[in-house]
Amino acid sequence: MDGMDGMDMSSTSSSSHSMSSSSSMSMTMVFKNTHDTPLFSNAWTPSSSGSFAGTCIFLIILAIIDRCLIAFKVTMERHWLATHLNRRYVTVVGKSSEAGNIDTDPDAKLASLITAQGVEESVKVVHNINRGPIPWRFSVDLPRALLFLCIAGISYLLMLAVMTMNVGYFCSVLGGAFIGELAVGRFIQTNEHGH
């Protein structure tokens, strides 16, 4: 019987512990309107209304930077694609080069090229047609990855600010996202009607 009493007491204390931890979890999932909520670390805890306002302004600017970086990445993606599609290969009769195999390309167009020696008549200019992803290039994929790293880092910081459940931080992130979208949202939109 003593063993059963011991089990009942341990299960009771275990269930009361789980209830207290679940009630404390539900307590943190409500919005609060305090000026002393830490942001990212305990060292960054506003101690006055002015420092709280400064923290909110920082979050607004961070959210604007996030939208600007997304718009910049989309603009660069368009630039990288256009550069890839407009890559030209020129071949001149009598000269062999890697571009010589464009003679069999059905997308090649005959054109004349003005050079320092005059007009070259036997020239083909090829515009690459987009068939799948563009090839991997260090000069394109490294900046793309770095931009994505910055965007992901800022987005996670903004998410952590929202997860503090502070009304001021939440409204600051939303306000910054709104201002950023208002300023650069047109650059993020894709052209769905073709190129």
UniProtKB/TrEMBL annotation:
<keyword id="KW-0187">Copper transport</keyword>
<keyword id="KW-0472">Membrane</keyword>
<comment type="similarity">
    <text>Belongs to the copper transporter (Ctr) (TC 1.A.56) family. SLC31A subfamily.</text>
</comment>
<feature type="region of interest" description="Disordered">
    <location>
        <begin position="1"/>
        <end position="21"/>
    </location>
</feature>
<dbReference type="GO" id="GO:0005886">
    <property type="term" value="C:plasma membrane"/>
</dbReference>
<feature type="transmembrane region" description="Helical">
    <location>
        <begin position="52"/>
        <end position="72"/>
    </location>
</feature>
<dbReference type="InterPro" id="IPR007274">
    <property type="entry name" value="Cop_transporter"/>
</dbReference>
<dbReference type="GO" id="GO:0005375">
    <property type="term" value="F:copper ion transmembrane transporter activity"/>
</dbReference>
<keyword id="KW-0186">Copper</keyword>
<keyword id="KW-0406">Ion transport</keyword>
<protein>
    <recommendedName>
        <fullName>Copper transport protein</fullName>
    </recommendedName>
</protein>
<keyword id="KW-1133">Transmembrane helix</keyword>
<keyword id="KW-0813">Transport</keyword>
<feature type="transmembrane region" description="Helical">
    <location>
        <begin position="145"/>
        <end position="161"/>
    </location>
</feature>
<keyword id="KW-0812">Transmembrane</keyword>
<dbReference type="Pfam" id="PF04145">
    <property type="entry name" value="Ctr"/>
</dbReference>
